[in-house]
Design brief:
The chain has about 80 residues and is α+β, with helices and mostly antiparallel strands. About 30% of the residues lie in helices and about 15% in strands. The protein contains three helices and two strands. It has a two-stranded antiparallel sheet with strand order 1-2. The longest helix has 12 residues. The chain starts with a helix and ends in a 5-residue tail after the last helix. About 0% of the residues are buried.
């Protein structure tokens, strides 16, 4: 008996077949922050005196300048 009452209440509260049960909701989408730009890295090939395989050293311009080397001047694009 209780089950029949619950079923009747559920059917009575159900929406009509033509009525949309789900309505679209405008949800504000926060703007996505752009990923921070990666700094430009300048790479130079190296060959140690005792080494047989060349190596590659990559650093930013600030890191090269800190060591006393300006990679843009070395590449002929001095600023």
């Amino acid at each position: 008996m209780m089950m029949a009452t619950m079923l009747a209440a559920a059917l009575a509260s159900a929406a009509a077949p033509g009525e949309d049960m789900l309505k679209p909701v405008d949800v504000p989408v926060p703007p996505v922050a752009a990923a921070p730009a990666r700094p430009v890295r300048y790479c130079f090939l190296t060959l140690e005196e005792d080494g047989r395989m060349p190596g590659k050293i990559c650093k930013t311009r600030v890191e090269w300048r800190w060591r006393g080397i300006d990679p843009l001047a070395y590449l002929g694009r001095g600023r």
